[in-house]
Amino acid sequence: MKIFKNYINGHWQDACSGKTTDIINPANGKIIGKATVSGEEDINSAIDSAKNSFYISGKWRRMSAQDRANVLFKIADLMTLAKDELSMIETENQGKPLRESEADVEDAIHVFKYYAGLITKPSGGSYEVNDGFGQMHSYTVHEPVGVCALITPWNYPLMIAVWKLAPALAAGNSIILKPATITPASVVKLFEIFHEAGLPAGCANLVLGPGGMIGGKLAESKDVDCITFTGSTPVGQSIMQAAAANVKKIGLELGGKSPSILFPDIDIERAVEWSMIGIFMNQGEVCSAGSRIIIHNSIHDEFVARLAERANCMTIGNPMKNPDMGAIVSEDQMTQILKYIEIGKKEGAVCRCGGERYTEGECADGFFIKPTIFDYCTPDMTIVKEEIFGPVVVIQTFETEEEAVALANDTEYGLAGAVFTNDHMRAIRIIKELRAGITWINCYNPCFVEGPWGGYKMSGIGRDLGVHGLEEYQEIKQINDCLDPGMPGWYNN
Ligand code: NAD
Q1: Which of 46, 329, 337, 410 fits a disulfide with 205 by CB distance 3.0 to 4.6 angstroms?
Q2: Could you tell me the pTM of the whole model?
Q3: Under 8 Å between Cβ of 27 and 327
Q4: What domains, with CATH codes, occur in the chain?
Q5: 29 lines ligand 1 (CB under 6 A)
Q6: pLDDT digits (tens, 9 = 90+) for 296-354
Q7: Which atom of ligand 1 is found nearest the CA of 255?
Q8: Is residue 253 flagged as an active site residue?
Q9: What would the pLDDT profile of 241-277 be if each residue is shown by its tens digit?
Q10: Measured between alpha carbons, how far is 39 from 453 in angstroms, rounded to an integer?
Q11: CA of 271 to the centre of ligand 1 (A)
């Protein structure tokens, strides 16, 4: 049985307490390994390791950008060699269909290459100035922030970790990664790759275990200079409060309840397909999931009938065999989703398909939920307001464009949103009104490393990916080089 350990200062270690927790395959409920359960001593030693690496040895941060890039390219190459293994590890631990894990691994490889390339490109600005003291050459440089704690969720265990690891390491920081307690498997494999690629000891540390304790300690530690977190909004809020202790640099990618607005001029078949990708990809456990469909009254019946027909035909099963939908990540998450489904029914939404656990054949002992569509939903319903994080979509209708925008923005979240229409001017008009960080026109969910990923309102602060994703892990230093050899002559004596 696999033992998932901490990786601190270049060594694999058990928790000081010796405690472990079972890691489960959500497709069959079986134990796939045991993960170490870290305590305060382990966290402190990970923080010390990162601190020594950054402030004392300085080996990683002092390397030339090109040398750091070479190590990141090597990581990408080793990941490419281990692509099949990484994908299977991810599916076994997380429950998503194998082809989705393969896409995640491809994305992660691409992200390492992107930041390896980006860090060697020119950055900063250069100015010739004269403010009365004489001529100055003033310029800016980007420097690493220092010790960075990265806390990640269970829905994309490898990919979201890499969205943070790649830019943080490219920038020259020393990091501590705290993955979700229940899905450590793929990042443990990734750290084995880090070791093989020759990352200097201490610049990348991994601590496994319970979120509240470890995450809380990392957030409040005065030895941690920056914290970035992807996860739920309430935990993000608590991290923000704790991070105030030493005014850490902070990045939060939080929850969502994202709308798709559908106008009558669309191709219904195409909109159905994208809506399915929007809500059923990764079993709906996607922060940007298109979990609210806001549709014009005139096409409501045709669209919902077709969406329900297609959702009913989706295959659910052993994720290794590539069904349309795999397993929910854990029994707890499945219970939570089923609770929301019951609330939806009680509050009067009409369940058009699904609405229950799936236990056929080899799914009997796993955690599966049928794709679920709730129709005739109203803004006051709990299932319309709260993030469910499962394969459950709610349908609302509108008559005018203004009404559609008002419904779409009627949420405390602001992560993503989409509009489906063949009228391009209308599409742009609507997109500009949406209070959301990631938007799509006539599609849903495509995501790529070049584009910044993050939300408005209670969906977060800052951005992963793209150039902005690198800046999350950098400070900007202003350097003023006085070119005037004479005295400033500021005082009379
Ligand atoms: P979560 O907030 O429960 O946990 C996320 C991480 O934080 C885990 O590593 C967890 O162990 C840790 N954690 C838990 N309590 C903590 C605490 N008190 N202090 C510090 N760390 C703590 O979220 P989850 O259930 O793993 O993931 C689902 C949530 O993540 C959803 O709300 C989803 O929308 C959000 N998410 C957002 C994005 C995005 O890019 N915006 C992406 C993926 C997931």
Answers
A1: 46
A2: 0.97
A3: yes
A4: 2-254+459-479 (3.40.605.10), 259-441 (3.40.309.10)
A5: no
A6: 999 999 999 999 999 999 999 999 999 999 999 999 999 999 999 999 999 999 999 99
A7: 34
A8: yes
A9: 999 999 999 999 999 999 999 999 999 999 999 999 9
A10: 32
A11: 30
